[in-house]
Design brief:
With 816 residues, this protein is an alpha/beta fold. It contains 32 helices and 26 strands.
């Protein structure tokens, strides 16, 4: 070794020695980097990297050797045989490639060590073959022990270099392995140089055709720089790409581990190759029990525990067949009790498949709830209209010759009054109680639904053509609905009306069956409520006529078909007209005069009473403005007008447009108006009084709380209902009530008006009891505005009646 150092110090060109060392370091770094990249690759790609690595390593070793040889300063004019020079390059590449194949990782750490040793042997083979390529004028002899030492250096350090490179793939391991490989190359070369002894022989001449030192120097150095630099750049860029891929892999791993779904990858044979923690948690298998396990084994284990109810072999066979056919597979199953999972299997191009496991228990529960809510009433949890229609349709599909389907449409009586007087919360609780009570009336197989508002319905099936059983149910429902309800401390009394349609008589279409039940319900309500009616042929014609009437009613305002008639109100103590009550009439262009009893309820039900009432108010004020200053006009205000608009604005607009003095306007309201929202209504009435408008309470005595309202608001007038006047003189009860009302009015300073006076006997009794004002057919029917002047011209009650009878025409019933 000392001789080698002496030779290196005094007989070598340091510049070329430095170049050889640089090439050696560069070659070693490239070799180790490419080797690590080959280990990370797989399939054909690994063989490409191994081939590139062996070429770079072999050429680096070869270039280091010859640059170091060129650094030796001899004066013998040595040259180099081209053939052996190229053979030495090819030999080191092939031997290194063989070593890298063994060290590629498939034979464990021992294979890596052996492969490194073979690559180190290739260094020695290249060195001594390259030395044989020297063309010198003399003979060369070798020291066997030093040759063995040179070969040993290459084997030991070469093996160590690949072992370190394969142990870890980071910069520290790469640099350490490159340093060991550099030592292997340099120690093999310089130790081998020390083993060589040259004896000059003038008889041996140098072949002039051999490569000169200068030519070889230029060739080796230039080619080494180009090849090794290119390999190093490729290796570094590959490492950079690998680092980026590694970062992406880390991010991907984090994403997979944080997925809400479980993920598992199976190979083509159905064995687990990868899974995330979510998958093991959702399936209940430990990591150790999943790795490498076959899906077949997992399914059988589930079957034994009672968590998988299909045949494992059939399921597995069908799944593998679908994956090989490149078809996805979606299955919903329960893996744990009360937990539902969606299992999705998607095939991979290279074989095998990816399984995702999603817990859909909460989603499925939400979907069930949404489906239930879409088909049930949110307040009572009964089926809604859409669901009820489906139930009727299903019932019709399953009927036989011995069975039929019956639909009962149930409408609550007076529910609107309760809802408006006691408030929406009590109304909602009442609907719940109604639903509960109706459910208790049903027999097995019957279904009840809430169709909306205060309307319920029942569908019955298989009643074997016995209408009596339907009537029994309808009667029971009416009785139950007539019983008081206790709602939030209030005793609420309502009722029910029922319309019934029968499939065998009324058609098989579910919509028509429900429509017929609604038609029968409407007629049951019109005939006094609290009753039930079966749909009969011809009822639909009545309903159609009602619809046509509603259409005409919508157009009546725009076509100026309404008229205002006036009925006089007499003051008994002065025997003269004090006021006229304005009453609306409808003169239809085809039907003629239509009774208010036919269209007023329809107008109130549909809300058309609001524009009609506003028109009557304006027209009455305009007409009254032309009357004498001491004559007033009385106009009825509907409860719908109070609820759906601002009556103060309507009255102010009518007075402003007509110029009528407010004190000449009298507004008549009913007790049902005060039931809706007494505080709000009384507030509006007080504003009317502030405007000097008079207020009259109509139909006094027919309600439940008339006296309490007289305490709440100082009415100007109370009108005694005509039902008491009609029986005046024939029943003592009516006489007592009328006498009490008149006395109450005198004590409170309120004018009393008796309406519906039709006989002289009734008039005499009212005058005797001290009634202030009278109104009725005894004096005059309601007349057009053109007759008002004639009525005012007559003196006395009966003079007016006689004059009017001279040109009397057909009018409506006295109650209109």
């Amino acid at each position: 070794m000392f001789q080698s150092l002496t030779c290196l110090t005094f007989q070598h060109d340091w510049r070329l020695v430095a170049l050889a060392a640089a090439v050696c370091c560069l070659a070693s770094l490239v070799t180790i980097s490419l080797f690590q990249r080959a280990l990370a690759a797989g399939g054909p790609e690994r063989w490409i990297w191994l081939g590139l690595d062996s070429a770079a390593a072999g050429y680096g070793i070869w270039a280091t050797h010859f640059i170091a040889i060129l650094a030796y300063q001899d004066s013998l004019g040595s040259r180099y045989q081209f053939s052996l020079t190229m053979i030495s390059l090819l030999a080191v590449i092939l031997i290194t490639f063989a070593g890298l194949i063994i060290a590629r990782g498939e034979y464990g750490s021992r294979g890596v060590a052996i492969g490194g040793a073979i690559a180190g042997l290739g260094i020695a083979v290249m060195h001594f073959t390259g030395m044989a390529a020297l063309d010198l004028p003399g003979r060369v002899t070798w020291s066997a022990p030093i040759v063995v030492a040179a070969v040993a250096f290459g084997i030991v350090f070469g093996s160590g270099a690949l072992v370190v490179a394969a142990s870890r793939n980071n910069w520290q391991a790469t640099l350490a392995a490159a340093a060991l490989l550099t030592l292997a190359i340099l120690l093999t070369h310089f130790t081998g140089m020390e083993a060589m002894h040259f004896v000059l022989d003038p008889a041996l001449a140098v072949n002039p055709a051999s490569l000169s030192r200068e030519a070889l120097s230029a060739f080796v150095a230039g080619l080494a720089g180009i090849i090794l630099s290119a390999c190093l750049v490729a290796a570094l860029r590959e490492r950079q790409s690998k680092d980026i891929l590694q970062q992406q892999k880390v991010l991907l791993d984090r994403a997979i581990e944080n997925l809400s779904q479980g993920v598992c990858i199976y190979d083509a044979d159905g064995c687990v190759t990868f899974f995330n923690k979510r998958y093991s948690h959702m399936t209940g298998f430990s990591d150790a029990s999943l790795k490498g396990r076959s899906l077949m084994d997992l399914l059988k284990q589930r079957q034994v525990s009672g968590e998988f109810h299909q045949d494992p072999e059939t399921y597995f066979t069908n799944l593998v067949a679908r994956m090989r056919a490149r078809k996805s597979n979606v299955t919903v199953m329960e893996i744990f009790p009360a937990r539902t999972f969606r299992v999705t299997d998607n095939p991979m191009p290279e074989g095998g498949w990816v399984t995702t496991l999603e817990d859909i228990t909460d989603w499925q529960s939400a979907q069930t709830q949404i489906s239930h809510m879409s088909r049930h009433d949110t307040l009572t949890d009964l089926p809604n209209r859409n669901h009820f229609r489906d139930l009727v349709e299903q019932a019709l599909l399953h009927t036989t010759k011995q069975s039929q389907v019956v639909v009962l449409s149930i409408g609550l009586d007076h529910f609107k009054d309760v809802n408006e007087s006691l408030g929406r919360p009590i109304g909602d609780d009442l609907l719940k109680a109604v639903g509960h009570r109706l459910t208790g009336c049903l027999r097995a197989g019957d279904t009840i639904a809430r169709l909306g508002g205060d309307e319920f319905a029942i569908v019955q099936m298989n009643i074997e053509l016995r209408p009596a059983s339907v009537s029994t149910l309808a009667g029971k429902i009416i009785d139950e609905m007539g019983k008081p309800f206790e709602i939030q401390g209030h005793q609420v009394i309502i009722g029910a009306s029922i319309g019934i349609s029968v499939q065998s008589n009324d058609g098989c279409d579910p919509d028509q069956l429900m429509i017929n039940a609604d038609i029968a319900l409407s007629l049951a309500k019109e005939n006094g409520r609290g009753a039930y009616r079966f749909f009969e042929t011809g009822m639909d014609a009545v309903a159609q006529a009602r619809r046509l009437l509603l259409i005409d009613l919508h157009a009546a305002l725009t076509r100026d078909e309404f008229l205002v008639y006036y009925q006089p109100i007499y003051r008994l103590d002065t025997d003269r007209i004090m006021c006229f009550e304005a009453l609306v009439r409808w003169n239809h262009p085809l039907r003629g005069m239509i009774s208010p009893a036919n269209f007023i309820p329809l107008a109130e039900e549909t809300g058309l009473i609001v524009p009609i009432g506003d028109w009557v108010l304006r027209q009455a004020c305009i007409d009254a403005a032309s009357w004498p200053k001491d004559i007033s006009v009385a106009v009825n205000l509907s409860t719908v007008q109070f609820k759906n608009c601002d009556p103060i604005l309507s009255v102010m607009a009518a007075l402003s447009q007509s110029g009528l003095a407010p004190k000449r306007l009298e507004l008549e309201i009913t007790e049902s108006l005060l039931l809706q929202d007494s505080d709000t209504t009384l507030g509006i009435l007080h504003k009317f009084r502030e405007l000097d408008i008079r207020i009259s309470l109509d139909d006094f005595g027919t309600g439940y709380s008339s006296l309490s309202y007289l305490r709440s608001f100082p009415f100007d007038k109370i009108k005694i209902d005509q039902s008491f006047i009609r029986e005046l003189g024939s029943t003592t009860d009516s006489m007592a009530i009328v006498r009490a009302i008149i006395g109450l009015g005198k004590n409170l300073g309120i004018t009393t008006l008796a309406e519906g006076v039709e006989t002289t006997e009734q008039l005499a009794l009212l005058r005797k009891k001290g009634c202030d004002e009278v109104q009725g057919y005894l004096f005059s029917k309601p007349r057009p505005s053109a007759d008002v002047e004639a009525m005012l011209a007559q003196k006395g009650l009966f003079q007016l009646k006689t004059a009017m009878e001279a040109h009397e025409v057909a009018e409506f019933p006295k109650s209109a």
